[in-house]
Amino acid sequence: MEKRTFGKSDLQVAPLAFGGNVFGWTVDEKTSFSLLDQFVDAGFDLIDTADVYSRWVPENQGGESETIIGNWLKRGVKRERVIIATKVGSSMSAGNPRKNLSRKYIRQAAEDSLRRLRTDYIDLYQSHYDDPETPVEETLQAYDELVKAGKVRYIGASNFSPARLSGSLRVSEERNYPAYISLQPEYNLYSRAVFEKELQPLCLRYGLGVLNYYALASGFLTGKYRSEADLSVSKRGKGITKYLNDRGLRILHALDQVAGRYETTPASVSIAWLLAQPGITAPIASATNPKQLDSLVQAVGLKLDNEALLQLNQASGED
Ligand SMILES: NC(=O)c1ccc[n+]([C@@H]2O[C@H](COP(=O)([O-])OP(=O)(O)OC[C@H]3O[C@@H](n4cnc5c(N)ncnc54)[C@H](OP(=O)(O)O)[C@@H]3O)[C@@H](O)[C@H]2O)c1
pTM score > 0.70 for this model? Predict the structure, then answer.
């Protein structure tokens, strides 16, 4: 499989990242281990998680996903064989929703993530959300210290506005701090406008890697939800309602047609469409069983022709 250079780093990554928000949520530890084994055995390397995953599950506290990944790493995969991307700054406490990228907070959160991941270093440490209350200089100084200490290799941003992203890049250059090498935005066939309008051109201009999340729109783009009656097929069904409208169904129709022509699944076509978009390094998607993961992995070998891309673009154009 052809790897892609990740932004301006010296990392080479396979073009699909496994999304770790399912670990400790819709997938237990045993199944997480087998999915991660399957992913790595298929030649992939990038695993995305966050300190806060999966705190939204009633009995969880946050940290469950990193703990499962850490336990998996200790089972024997060579540490340098995988690229671990985690995030900091989303609230870990139910009573305090503040996004926090202060130096003090990052220093402690990095130690906690390293301990849960059972590793000495994080390959990509990402600001999960912007924190407008903390000066950008302070956040980048904290990252500078972690990079110098060998605890973090590269830093990335997620959910940043174009202005804050370019502002952060400018401060890194002026102060000689590490610079964000990547952006993690929401982007898929259904949710296009926010990324395509300003963020995509900015990522291309600065040579940032892009790891886009919700590559399957939480499962909607697999085609398994066609009406309200289908929402009960998954624990995540409730969140799908927002896609069940004319435009969503038009996208599914185009996905069905293209998938039929290529004798593959809508899930694979959705990922293949993302892989054909300028600037995308590796879409992040998750799976809860081996068959689902297989459909994601298959997408990497699927090259859509212009007719298919046009059909999908037309169906997904914003109203
Ligand atoms: N930076 C951020 O703020 C942010 C926010 C959200 C997510 N993320 C990252 O992005 C990753 C991906 O997001 P996500 O997992 O929420 O959404 P997703 O990748 O869009 O959807 C994945 C879900 O769709 C279902 N699925 C996958 N393949 C399928 C197939 N072939 N057939 C039928 N169903 C299939 C599975 O759920 P079921 O089997 O349960 O239906 C799976 O968990 C996360 O794990 C996380 O790493 C980042």
Answer: yes
